[in-house]
């Protein structure tokens, strides 16, 4: 019996293997047709925080 192929996840070398968490978040937001402002409002974040997450720039987020 053969084993199923591993799923394509970040870091596995699959189609999204090079994608960062921020890139995946941005792509999902765009696929849903949502603006940064709309997502920020829903998550109760500032738009700059959403942009920082999508850019993988964690230095501009509050907390540690």
Q: Please, could you describe this protein's structure?
A:
The protein is mainly α and 64 residues long. Helices cover 42% and strands 0% of the residues. It starts with 20 loop residues before the first helix and ends in a 10-residue tail after the last helix. The relative contact order is 0.13.
Blueprint (SSEs and pairs):
Elements (H helix, E strand, L loop, with lengths): L20 H11 L4 H8 L3 H8 L10
Helix pairs in contact: 2-3
Radius of gyration: 15 Å
Q: Pick out the low-confidence regions.
A: 6-14
The strand count comes to 0
The quaternary organization reads as: single chain
- First-to-last CA distance: 48 Å
> Helix segment count?
3
Shape: flat
Reading the helices and strands in chain order gives HHH
Amount of helix: 40-55%
Beta strand %: under 5%
Query: What structural class do helix, strand and pairing data support?
Result: mainly alpha
Characterize the main sheet: none
Mean of residue pLDDT?
A: 83
Outline of this structure?
The chain has three helices and no strands. 42% of the residues lie in helices and 0% in strands.
């Amino acid at each position: 019996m053969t084993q199923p192929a591993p799923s394509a996840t970040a870091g596995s070398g699959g189609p999204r293997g090079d994608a960062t968490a921020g890139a995946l978040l941005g792509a999902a937001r765009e696929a849903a047709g949502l603006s940064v402002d709309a997502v920020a409002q829903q998550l109760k974040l500032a738009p700059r925080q959403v942009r920082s997450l999508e850019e993988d720039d964690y230095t501009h987020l509050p907390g540690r």
